Fold this protein.
Amino acid sequence: MRAFTLKGVIPALLTPFDAAGAVDLDLLREDAQRLAAAGVSGLCVGAFPSEMAGMAPSELLAVCRTVRLSATLPLLVNIYPDSTTEAMDLARAAVDGGAAALLIAQPHYLFQPYPTGLVELFAELRSRVTVPILLSNTLPAALVRFSAIKQLIDASVVDGVLQGGGDAHLLADLLAYKSPAPVLNGVEGLLYTGLLIGAETAVSILAAVFPQACCRLQAAFADGDYQEALRLHGALLRSWRMLDHPAELAWRLKAACRLMGRELGVPRSPYNLSSEHGAGLAQTAVEAIQAL
């Protein structure tokens, strides 16, 4: 396996778009710099709430280069391909853009492949790129099961697993398995619990909105101040419950950032509208963290 040793808090960046749906690279650059200054360990583009699924390789390349040149932190790139060919094209663009590691989700459009197909996909990727490749198991409706993840690890075609998708059981099972491949926590409601059961790295949507609070939680845990870590976890969990929504997630996350003085544009249509209730919840979520 290729070594993946990055530990700590890695924000899953929100992609700024203008009213026409084009990436606003200036806002992206500013946000990457702000997040780096907050003390995070790395930056991740293309994750679940980034609205980058379906991006052309050229667009992904521009985003990666902008983030990589904005901060001297390791860059992780999350890719949601629908085929091996698309995975290859996007992987090349990400590596050319400065990716230190790739997080690759299983193809999910219409159907999910058999485990043998996944092994073939990741083996093909490993033959074409030299950076570490991790399984991004983060799509709630298309999670890879533990038995298939074990096949990928045993075949040495992945160098780690980002386990998200809201599945606490899979995260616990993978950590209990004592895999030779590192397991990253992508379950937003388990930032503290993930540390307790052995996940030393979190790729977090919440960290893209509240980076200081997430870094404080990680530092408190490392210092053995579990009461403070649990207090921070409680506030972050309550905020996540208010921000998480199947249709309004990107809108609420960007609204929360805007309330704290960080402009990230608007979500791409048709996700650029929100209910009045959602706006109120974003406000309450921010207030919960600002009160810490």
User: Anything to note?
Assistant: The beta strands are 8-11, 43-45, 75-79, 101-104, 133-137, 161-163, 183-185, 201-204.
